[in-house]
Amino acid sequence: MIASTKYFLVHLTRGGISYLSVIKKDGSPLFVMEALQRIVEVFAEYFGGDNNMENAVKGHFSTVYQVLDEMIDGGFPSTTEINQLKEMIKPPTLSQKLLQTMSDSFAVSDKMAMGLISKIPWRRSDVKYVTNEIYFDIVESIDAIFGENQMVVSCNVYGEIKSNCQLSDMPDLTLTFNKPSFLDDVSLHRCVRIHRFQRERIVSFVPPDGAFSLLSYRVRGNTNLPVYVKPAFHFKPGGGSVHVMCGTKGSLKGEQVPTDVVVIIPFPKNIISSTLTCNVGTIRQDQITKVCRWIIGRMPSDKTPELEGTISLPPDTVVDERPTVTCEFQSKGYSSTGLKVEGLAIKNVRYKPFKGVRNMTKAGRFQVRT
After folding, report:
1. Are 338 and 212 contained in the same domain?
2. CB 3.0–4.6 Å: which of 144, 168, 173, 253 could bond 155 by disulfide?
3. Is 25 helix (H, G, I), strand (E, B) or coil?
């Protein structure tokens, strides 16, 4: 938050776009940031993600203006549910553009969204699907720091349960986990009955229609890490040697084998040259930043990836700093915390839906000190 003589400025940046809020009175910046984050999520639903958000905002600025006018009323958050907004303001699809051009109609509906007068404002009451299905993705991100002796200095796992709901009518769901007691700092979607979750650690809810984030959580320590990195640097005046090993822990098979593995090695700024080789993957080194990216890709099953070589430094130069190696990876079908869905019960409907649950673990700030 930035304070000026008259106003307070709160902003966040997502997808290359900065979202700025100007407030007159000093208040909770987290409240303002939550509103900005909700705007980001709504724009992602309307325009299809953050990758092309800048062009989407430029090409559909009238829709952006209309959405913001509904979300913020008189300077306060008003309508923030995506289902309500889509009822009032149609997403800018190609068919919608053609319809407006041919019939001289408007994207803004002249009828009030049913969610505004409903006890369940996050869900439309007239939802109908031919095939009823609901999917859950448990995505866990590992933040870990390892010391020189490969021991864990700190480790936190940040998880999020994402859902894509395509169920007719007004279903009432109950989701149970195998070991919910270790979940910490849980943030629930407004559809979850919070008092029952606090009492029984059971997620009971009437889901919104479409994609949404059901809950997020944190787990401290006691996690199973799918990847290890063992770096070794030996510096001496005028040069040094490098040796890095990267492998998998435990017996991972099929889609659980880590993919998109990249080891990032920041060399000293005064390095002159380097001669590096690896038995798996490719090596790319930035000559300006002196950062080496060892791109392994999918972990092989028949050998352990290794990188080794030498570096050249100016004569009589002694390196005091020790590089901190970072690693990126993702492992589908793997849960570092062991969290699993035990059951999903559905009531208040006559059909039997198709249900699916997937796990994925990826690296957050995964650092190894040397």
Report:
1. yes
2. 144
3. coil
Point out which residues pair with 235 in neighbouring strands: 240
**The pLDDT value given to residue 97:** 55
182: containing domain:
133-224+334-369
Crossing angle, helix 61-71 and helix 29-47, to 10 degrees? 140
Q: CA 128, CA 124: separation in Å to the nearest integer? A: 10
193 neighbors 202 (Cβ within 8 angstroms): no
pTM: 0.80
The partner residues of 216 in beta bridges, in order of sequence, read 160, 187
Residue 239 has a CB neighbour count (10 Å cut-off) of 19
What dihedral angle (degrees, nearest 10) is formed by the CA atoms of 146, 258, 248, 151?
A: 10
Sheet hosting strand 172-177, strand order edge to edge: 203-205, 172-177, 341-347
Domain count, the chain: 3
First to last CA, the chain: 36
pLDDT band at 362 (very low <50, low <70, confident <90, very high): very high
Those residues with Cβ within 8 angstroms of residue 8's Cβ, 6 or more apart along the chain or in another chain? 1, 2, 22, 23, 24, 25, 26, 27, 29
Residue 57's Cβ-side half-sphere holds a number of Cα atoms within 13 Å equal to 19
Q: Once rounded to an integer, what is the mean pLDDT over residues 308-328?
A: 86
- Answer whether 257's CB lies under 8 Å from 329's CB: no
Instruction: Assign 221 a pLDDT band (cuts: 50, 70, 90).
Output: confident
